[in-house]
Amino acid sequence: MCGLGGELTLDGAPPDVEAVGQMSPCLRVRGPDGSGAWQQGPLALLHHRLKIIDLSDAGAQPMADDDLGLVVVFNGCIYNHRELRAELEGMGYTFRSHSDTEVLLKAYHRWGARCVERFFGMFAFAMYERATGRLVLARDRLGIKPLYLTRSAGRIRFASTLPALLAAGGVDTTVDPVALHHYLSWHSVVPAPRTILRGVEKLPPATVRTVERDGTSTDVRYWDPPATRPDGPARSPRQWQEEIVDALRRAVARRMVADVPVGVLLSGGLDSSLVVALLAEAGQAHLATFSIGFADAGGESGDEFAYSDLVAKEFGTDHHQIRIGHERLVPGVDAAIGAMSEPMVSHDCVAFYLLSQEVSKHVTVVQSGQGADEVFAGYDWYPPLAGVPRADAAGAYAKVFFDRDQAELAALVNPEWLPDGDPSRAFVDEHFAAPGAQTALDAALRIDTRVMLVDDPVKRVDTMTMAWALEARVPFLDQEVVELAGRCPPELKLAAGGKGVLKAAARGLVPDAVIDRPKGYFPVPGVRHLGGPILDRVRDALTSPSARERGLFRPDVVAELLTDPNGRRTTIGGNVLWQVGLLELWLQRMGL
Questions:
Q1: Sequence-ordered alpha helix ranges (H) in 507-575
Q2: CA distances from 500 to 182, 292, 322, 378, 453 (A)
Q3: Which is nearest to 160 in space by CA: 141, 145, 147?
Q4: What φ, ψ does residue 65 adopt, rounded to 5°?
Q5: Which of 114, 162, 475, 586 could form a cystine bridge with 343, CB 3.0-4.6 A?
């Protein structure tokens, strides 16, 4: 896990090495264990390393192979790198390190850009062919590892974080009206390639972009999760359960590949508890587990320690309870916003940020239960889609998932920031109209897996853990697990109030009290119920000169929200004031 950056010039000029170097402070937190730079011809590369596999300097980056004529910077982990290495050695390749970076480099030489189809892992990388001047950028199937880009007539810059690109300069930082529409429609999700800033894009997940020497580029999407039933005889519910558990066993085992200790973020919910159970089943003794709790607020409990303690006791883990008082919450909110590559409205962000701060004192790698709700239908907006005619699926999804309809959005945003039409509904309509999803629920899970998952929980976990140089691995987003979940009949996923097939599969592995408990979240009551210093920060941001000059939101609506800060909620229960305030807080934190 690392931070990377670079610049490729397209006009014959040398790259701006100084501008690339200005990215360094923004990337160092992702990779504090080492750094390197490389420049030749039109390309400059920068890398900050977090040592997890092959802790020696042989795994340092940028990694160049003069014999093969390749140089690469890479962020992530290839879990099956040992198997690929053995295969490549059988073809005559020799290795000077034990790193997965070198496996990636030689896999690219052997199989070209299609090497990504052979990887089990999470990754973003930039590969340069010296002979052709071709730059290849790639991102893993679920977009777990980020890759941001800016482009002008004469150059392309790329980096692991958006702030790194801002630090390099020359970026159009105007808010993108279509992205703003998405942000306000889907609780801050802005699908790739857009970001909230007009001048910055992100490489879509499961995509390889090839940039030729003349600046022309092509994108190839190399994977799509299925959303139809498999061919052949129908499986019984028990067979589905067994296949899912077997796939998860392989997924958690893959994510133990490391030369440093691996722990688990244990919320006390089904998903992280099942990860712990499967690791214990595989013989992982004295596994380090970590849970976080906050002070109560607004009549809402701030922790779920009763469940995480139960799981820790059941499996004999080395468990750490992390309690966050009011005095740490406000600085934590400020710091979490500063760590964001894009504005993220979920109150989970501050929880992951503060949890990662403490966990990083003990381990460098953790497994997490993120992603199970999106692939196994665990959220409460999925059951209303059962039985909806396929032709009506997009409208039904919009009704239960969108934060607000077009009329309400138009009443919130100043007219000059409103794009033509309803781009968020058009985006959803296009996705739902695509062939290959049999039922309304299949179509909803497909868009959530391909889009909403990537730019909400996945981005949240990577951003907040990497703010403390902590690598988070997500077994529920293993490609085998996601593909199996996509083929599983909807009625099995919707059973038992959601994630039914996963709950049934977990029986006998996880305590029944955890399986049968009400669904919980990372509770951060102090953000869900705005008051005190956090409300003051929101008020200051929304009434500041920069906010007034930007003029995103109607002043009368902002004043109304500030009068009753917890009175207005989105369709799924989000705080409207926090959603609009967080955007301004982030823009101002970025110096915009």
A1: 512-515, 525-528, 532-542, 545-550, 555-563
A2: 31, 26, 30, 8, 20
A3: 147
A4: -125, 105
A5: 586
> Rounded to whole angstroms, how far apart are CA atoms 277 and 283?
10
User: Which H/E stretch holds residue 126?
Assistant: strand 121-129
Crossing angle of helices 479-487 and 237-254, rounded to 10°? 160
Buried b / exposed e over 374-411, threshold 16 CB at 10 Å, is bbbbbbebbebbeebeeeebbebbbebbbbbebebbee
- Asked whether 155 and 9 are in contact (CB, 8 A), the reply is yes
Please say whether the beta carbons of 287 and 252 come within 8 A: no
- 3-state SS, one letter per residue, for 503-516: HHHHECCECHHHHC
What contacts 453, CB < 8 A, 6 or more positions away? Answer: 142, 371, 374, 375, 477
Strands 2-9 and 63-65: unpaired
Tens-binned pLDDT, residue by residue, of the chain (592 aa): 699 999 999 999 999 999 999 999 999 999 999 999 999 999 999 999 999 999 999 999 999 999 999 999 999 999 999 999 999 999 999 999 999 999 999 999 999 999 999 999 999 999 999 999 999 999 999 999 999 999 998 999 999 999 999 999 999 999 999 999 999 999 999 999 999 999 999 999 999 999 999 999 999 999 999 999 998 899 999 999 999 999 999 999 999 999 999 999 999 999 999 999 999 999 988 899 999 887 776 666 767 889 999 999 999 999 999 988 888 888 999 999 999 999 999 988 988 999 999 999 999 999 999 999 999 999 999 999 999 999 999 999 999 999 999 999 999 999 999 999 999 999 999 999 999 999 999 999 999 999 999 999 999 999 999 999 999 999 999 999 999 999 999 999 999 999 999 999 999 999 999 999 887 666 677 777 899 999 999 999 999 999 999 999 999 999 999 999 999 999 998 999 999 999 999 999 999 9
Beta bridge partners of 318: 288
Give me the residues paired with residue 38 across strands.
45
> What's the token pair of residue 155?
């150059």
Nearest to 207 by CA among 151, 128, 145, 129: 145
Query: How many Cβ atoms sit within 10 Å of the Cβ of residue 226?
Result: 17
Strand order in the sheet with 471-473: 318-324, 288-294, 262-265, 365-367, 471-473
Round to whole Å and give the CA distance between 396 and 388: 7
Measured CA to CA, the distance from residue 90 to residue 106 in angstroms comes to: 13
- Tokens for 344? 């993220």
Backbone Cα Rg of the chain: 23
- The pair of structure tokens assigned to 8 is 């490729």
